[in-house]
Amino acid sequence: MIFEDESGFSLVCPLKRTWAPRGQTPKARTSLQHNQRINIIGALLITPAGRKIKLRAKRHEVNLTGEQIIDFLKHLLGRVRGPLLLIWDRAPIHQRKKVQDFIGRHQRLYVYNFPTCAPELNPVEFVWTQADEYLAGTAPENIGKLRANVQASLQRTRVSQKRLWACLHASDLPWQRDRMRH
Question: Which domains does the chain have, with CATH numbers?
Answer without folding.
Answer: 2-11+35-175 (3.30.420.10)
